[in-house]
Amino acid sequence: MRTAFVRVAIAGGIALGVGVLRPLAANSEIVYTYADYALSFHEAGRAAHMQISAAEYARWTNAAPTLSDRTTLTHRVYAHLQDSFDFIFVVNDEEETFTGIFGRNYGVRNSVTGIGRALFDNTATYGSSGNLQSLIHLTERGGLVNGPSLH
Length: 151
Fold this sequence. Notes:
The chain is built from two helices and eleven strands. By secondary structure, the chain is an alpha/beta fold.
């Protein structure tokens, strides 16, 4: 099982490693810049940082990204990465939020029977060819190492 980490932020030079926040050195990242976003990858390929517009980021920080926001973000990621991830984590570049929501799981695909949930597959909508199971949104940086992702 592989997981892609994408940190959504307006500014900053910090990306997510495996459970650890750390600054990226200027020579250790690959950066792609477009009109409406910039995406940088740590050279090891285990962490990414996406800069988006203030308006788009406001929806993520209010814990209310639309389906369009979520699918736009995943399509941007899949433009650069193979579809080899079960989960994509989006972590806001915020120390603390006051939305009352610390994390949210957006189910993309369920192929497991007998758990009381219907089978569904929305992977194509998210740009996945069938591997992505969930998009997990954490509203604070600490949510990955101290919070909802541990449940």
